[in-house]
Design brief:
Strand content: 15-25%
Number of helices: 10
Largest sheet: 6 strands, mixed
Length: 309
């Protein structure tokens, strides 16, 4: 069996498509397609179900992938050892991050990292739901402590303390009044977010031990991610109040386009973590990234209820 054909199958199955696999591997999609068809002909069975929108392993393909993926990971790790002999490590670092981290946490970190390691390419996959980073071909992910798996190593990345902020345009508040207690927001137009499963996150507030959770109504409902920009724009336009990560609103707060609401009530929470499997060998790009975070005075430590390295 041709090793290249097996490698093509694994890369396509991991990427979920021929084009994505070709882009990641730096080869043509047609060559991957030919390799997979050749492999299926040798086995005498279909390994991938193909539609115009997606590619997914068949039951037989899934079983083969379960056996091959660890072997190819070990081969990649063995070859990656040679990276240690380079003056500067090279390769691709693939991160899975929520949209909030992509906007707030990564820009200053990645800017410094790419300057320090010009031979490393960073690929960022934005996903607000929790996923198995290894199963989708990522090296590491960024999540908050309540969404970390027990067998992962976690190190802090970005701000150690963050806040949720509530704000609205001054003109809106002039017309509708300024809340003095979180429950006053129930009488206001609130621009809400909704998860893919349909659940709407509550608006939480805390002050002097008093916790208030609200489920306000409003004229706009958006999904997390890029659509949150629409909610922010509508708040700036005076449509209603918004409740998001402070970092996502900071520029508008500083400019005066948005006015803070109930700032003493804004809840604080611990910052995000970079997490990755606790295996012995880390790919050179990931090891460089971890070392870069440590050098920035971030000490490695397990997240809450997580085992150490």
């Amino acid at each position: 069996m041709e090793l290249n054909d097996l490698s093509a199958f694994v890369s396509v199955a991991r990427a979920g498509g021929f084009r994505d696999a070709a882009r990641i591997g730096g080869v043509s999609a047609s060559s991957l397609s030919i390799a997979v068809r050749r492999l299926e002909a040798k086995f005498g069975m279909r390994l991938l179900n193909r539609t115009t929108r997606s590619v997914a392993p068949t039951e037989a393909g899934l079983r083969l992938l379960e056996k091959l993926a660890p072997l190819f990971s070990e081969m990649e790790a063995a070859l990656d050892v040679l990276n240690g002999f380079r003056e500067k490590p090279s390769g691709t670092l693939k991160l899975n991050v929520p949209s909030s981290a992509a906007r707030i946490v990564l820009p200053p970190v990645i800017a410094g990292f790419l300057k320090a390691y010009p031979d490393i390419r960073v690929e960022v996959v934005v996903e607000d739901g929790f996923v198995d980073v290894l199963s989708i071909g990522c090296d590491a992910g960024i999540r908050y402590d309540e969404r970390l798996e027990q067998d992962m190593i976690a190190i802090p990345i970005g701000p150690r303390v963050q806040r949720f902020a509530t704000a609205a345009a001054p003109a809106y508040l002039d017309a509708h009044g300024r809340p003095t207690h979180p429950r006053d927001l129930l009488a206001h137009a609130c621009l809400r977010g909704q998860f893919a499963g349909g659940a709407k996150p509550t608006w939480d507030f805390e002050r002097d031990g008093e916790v208030v959770r609200l489920d306000p109504s409003g004229p706009l409902l958006v999904r997390p991610g890029a659509a949150m920009e629409l909610a922010i724009s509508m708040a700036v336009a005076g449509v209603g109040a918004v409740h998001l990560f402070e970092g996502m609103l900071r520029a508008h707060l500083d400019s005066g386009a948005l006015e803070p609401i109930l700032e003493p009530w804004w809840p604080r929470f611990s910052g995000p973590f970079l997490y990755y499997p606790g295996r012995r060998h880390l790919p050179a790009p990931l090891r460089a990234f971890v070392d870069f975070l440590k050098a920035a005075d971030v000490s490695e430590s397990p997240g809450p209820n997580l085992p150490g390295a």
